From TrEMBL:
Residues 57-99 are annotated as: Disordered. Residues 57-71 have a biased composition (Basic and acidic residues). This is Peptidase C39-like domain-containing protein.
Length: 298
């Protein structure tokens, strides 16, 4: 299938010359993995509000009901300090998990990925005396600095930097481009590998962008979201995505992740879930499990 010149992406060109592509990692994952909750974390949460406890132990909200397509749910940070933003009633509202500026979408995703696989790190954020919002912002800035090295700050976190820094418990990551002509199955099906990993309980950072039809600057990776889960719903297999500019969880049919077609309402929902962009152009995939870091159980 030929791709119109104005519909090409930078990742199509990279794929054509064999850069950042190749067979995807083959994972062997049985039951969805989950981190063990260390005793100090359990002890600290013994008298905590149930909602706050849930946000510490499940920072990505995967144990709750998934959002409905087109109706995103806010993703709130765990906060045990009482320093959250004031709200109606006696209990302050927890801050949303938003990126701190227009360049830290990748850093926000990497921080939430780490918190989801490390209850002790999530508890540390919740107990930070600055409050969860400022602490989350500081973690984003530190993560961005660590992942971009000589990369210009205005361009955010590059995929290779994200892959080097990405941690979900014992899992380490690599990266692959997602071309517009990618197969739906097989050893080079990057999006299929991302969906399979999320279905098995391992979140996957995804880079989004546009194509040359809207200018050269839109054909490169422009934003990062986190594929947190894939579940069966009444509309079929549905992906849940953490979108850091809105600080919310979005639901998208799995088939809609692949293309820009569909009804206008579906296109709008997909763009919102992808941070305003029509395509997934790069994926940071789990590549290997190492016996280090937080203790885990299968």
């Amino acid at each position: 299938m030929r791709v119109r010149h104005d519909a090409q992406r930078l990742t199509d060109l990279l794929e054509a010359v064999g850069l950042f592509c190749g067979p995807v990692p083959q994972l062997s994952v049985g039951a969805p993995p989950a981190p063990r909750v260390p005793y100090p974390v359990e002890s600290a949460l013994r008298d905590a509000d149930p909602a706050v406890r849930a946000r510490v132990l499940d920072p990505l909200g995967r144990d709750r009901e998934p959002p409905r397509p087109g109706r995103p749910d806010p993703l709130l940070l765990p906060d045990l300090t009482g320093a959250a933003r004031p709200g109606a009633g006696p209990t302050p509202l927890a801050p949303e998990a938003r990126q701190v500026d227009e360049t830290t979408c990748g850093a926000a995703v990497l921080v939430m990925l780490r918190l989801a696989g490390d209850p002790a790190a999530a508890l540390a954020l919740a107990r930070d005396p600055r409050g969860a919002g400022p602490a989350f912002a500081a973690l984003q800035r530190a993560t961005q600095l660590r992942t971009r090295r000589v990369w210009p700050r205005r361009l955010g976190t590059p995929p290779w930097g994200a892959a080097r820094a990405a941690r979900y418990g014992p899992w380490r990551y690599t990266h692959r481009v997602v071309g517009s002509r990618e197969p739906s199955a097989g050893p080079r099906a990057v999006l299929r590998a991302a969906v399979d990993a999320a279905s098995a309980g391992i979140p996957v950072p995804l880079y989004t962008g546009g194509d040359l039809g809207h200018g050269a600057t839109t054909a490169v990776p422009r934003h990062v979201v986190l594929l947190t889960a894939v579940r069966q719903t009444v509309v079929g297999p549905t992906a849940t995505l953490y979108e850091p500019s809105s600080g919310a969880l979005h639901a998208v049919p799995v088939d809609a992740l692949r293309g820009a077609g569909g009804a206008p309402q579906e296109q709008t929902s997909r763009r919102r879930a992808l941070g305003g962009w029509p395509h997934v152009v790069w994926a940071v995939l789990p590549s290997e499990e190492r016996q280090e870091g937080p203790a885990w159980r299968a």
